Amino acid sequence: MTRPSTSHRAFHRSHMAIDYFIQYPCRVRAVVSDQNLLRMKNARKEARASIRIALNDPDFTTDMAAFEYAAAAQLLERNAAFPLHAKIASLLEEAAPLAALSKHCQDCPANLRGTAFGCGGAIHYPIIKETEQWLVSRLPDDLSTEIGQTLLSVLEDLRLDGACVDADRTRKAIYAAKQPIWRNWGSFWSKKTGISSSQMLHMLIGVGPLSPTHAQLVCWFLGFLDGEQKPAFRPDNFSAASDAPGIIRFKMFLMAAAFAGSNNYNLFVNV
Q1: What 3-state class would DSSP assign to 2?
Q2: 109-123 confidence digits (pLDDT tens)
Q3: Residue ranges per domain, the chain?
Q4: Number of Cβ within a 10 Å radius of residue 190
Q5: Are 262 and 230 in contact (CB under 8 A)?
Q6: pTM for the whole thing?
Q7: CA pair distance 133, 131, nearest whole angstrom
Q8: CA 37, CA 24: separation in Å to the nearest integer?
Q9: Which residues contact 6 (CB under 8 A, 6 or more apart)?
Q10: Is the CB of residue 115 less than 8 Å from the CB of residue 105?
Q11: Dist CA 87 CA 71 (whole Å)
Q12: Largest pairwise CA distance in the chain
């Protein structure tokens, strides 16, 4: 398997979520780029949030994602002199093409969520400690196996040290935990090896769009693809009532990555 390449870089965030789409060659992709699709979806979210702020909805902060609230609040602050109804109208006009485009999503094989533009989704910040614990718990139990040795090799070859993640840990709006979660292998009598949640987050969201090979590897390491790059139908790969919302969203992300990797598509990732 050819190793993906990556570069060391700090994250640049324009909003409070990690957005992703399977780059499936559908009728939507024929006319709209990933960036434009994301722009229109964010405009629609900001419009809806602005409407609810304008209506002084008492349930707004409890039943809407925090990042939508923050985006709308920033929008209103930036444009304080601009009439609110005009702001909302402008955003809705920007998002208007989504209605016509969404009709192509109904029978799309990449529509994993069964919704309009269900080939993608969002992981909302902050990333909580329980999510990081879950990520490292998914790693192979035995690092002496083929999968374990490949994991260690990829971390070293691609210099996935997690530094770009740890640099953001002073911002509670991004990471709830000030320190990464470590999983250690080995015993008192043997060499000890540790892998941190920062390294896995670096591998997942710190390298930009995921190539098919990169998606295959990370989904193999985390149990969403088997050694033959076929979907691993483990019961714990699916959302459970006991899962924290952040874990559910990472499971959805990994299912999208598994579909993309096993079908030789890129996964667009916008951090």
Answers
A1: coil
A2: 999 999 999 999 999
A3: 30-110, 125-270
A4: 8
A5: yes
A6: 0.83
A7: 5
A8: 13
A9: 158, 159, 160, 206, 207, 208, 214
A10: yes
A11: 13
A12: 70
Which residue from 240, 263, 267 is spatially nearest to 251, judged by alpha carbons? 240
- Residue 266 near residue 210, CB atoms below 8 Å: yes
Q: Each residue of 57-93: pLDDT tens digit?
A: 555 454 444 545 555 556 556 555 556 667 777 888 8
Residue among 24, 41, 26 nearest 270 (CA): 41
Q: Token digits for 199?
A: 């390294």
Q: Which residues contact 162 (CB under 8 A, 6 or more apart)?
A: 180, 196, 197, 198, 199, 200, 201, 202
Query: Which of 154, 167, 158 has the alpha carbon at shortest distance from 222?
Result: 154
- At residue 185, the 3 state secondary structure works out as strand
List, in order, residues 6 or more apart from 184 with CB less than 8 Å away.
192, 193, 194
